[in-house]
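$ ./design --mode recover --in tokens.txt
reading tokens...
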């Protein structure tokens, strides 16, 4: 992989894996590295640290970016619970996930804005996407809506709880993410996409420990593994699509 003089985007660059990846990239002499994280202070503090460690590099060599890549750009810095508890924002989120893929949905997404701004040649994705999606926890949402039904709620409450339930569906969110990622990379001519994947359990089997105050094995952790598996196959299909970016996934725990 030719990295020299290329623009590299490291998704999840503040995390342990992204941090290590960024440092491995520097000796390959890319043109610049965009370092992302969910929160502004994380991305900026990491870039500040990198600039201290590598003072001979240009001032704009490390570029911070922050926000949630799974929502539209206007929501990227908004807490998910705030979105779900706001009727207007919740309906927008639901349409972004469930409606047909349109140019408007693509253009308004945060990852589209990120890619069109920086036009990366190479993307290294170290975000634990399966965790981000599965830990929305559809089981807790189910219990909330079941309790609401028992209390004979108003139509308005049932609409609210049903919309929240639909917003936590794992697979539609994953599909929309892949659709947006694929189309965004095609538009900016990204050449290579490398995903650092997960098994969801740290390499263990169904003997995963009691971690979520529920039965063993945890349904939430198994959901994470299920999302990770679905993500792998969607990336496999993306990699087999002609004229798209070269797509590879690495699952360290599966090696």
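writing sequence...
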């Amino acid at each position: 992989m030719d990295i020299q003089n290329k623009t590299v985007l490291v998704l999840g660059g503040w995390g342990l894996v992204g941090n290590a990846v960024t440092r491995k990239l520097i000796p390959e002499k890319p043109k610049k590295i965009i370092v992302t994280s969910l929160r502004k202070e994380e991305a900026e503090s990491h870039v500040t640290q990198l600039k201290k460690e590598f003072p001979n590099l240009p001032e704009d060599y490390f570029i911070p970016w922050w926000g949630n890549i799974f929502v539209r750009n206007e929501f990227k810095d908004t807490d998910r619970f705030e979105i779900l508890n706001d009727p207007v924002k919740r309906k927008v989120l639901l349409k972004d996930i469930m409606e047909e893929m349109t140019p408007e949905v693509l253009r308004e997404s945060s990852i589209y804005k990120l890619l069109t701004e920086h036009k990366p040649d190479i993307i290294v994705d170290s975000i634990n996407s399966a965790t981000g999606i599965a830990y929305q926890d559809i089981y807790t949402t189910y219990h909330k809506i079941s309790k609401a039904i028992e209390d004979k709620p108003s139509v308005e409450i049932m609409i609210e709880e049903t919309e929240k339930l639909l917003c936590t569906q794992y697979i539609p969110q994953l599909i929309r993410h892949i659709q947006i990622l694929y189309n965004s990379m095609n538009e900016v001519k990204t050449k290579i996409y490398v995903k650092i994947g997960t098994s969801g359990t740290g390499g263990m089997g169904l003997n995963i420990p009691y971690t979520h105050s529920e039965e063993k094995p945890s349904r939430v952790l198994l959901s994470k593994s299920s999302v990770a598996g679905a993500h792998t196959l969607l990336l496999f299909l993306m990699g087999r699509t002609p004229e798209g970016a070269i797509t590879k996934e690495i699952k360290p725990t599966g090696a």
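exit 0
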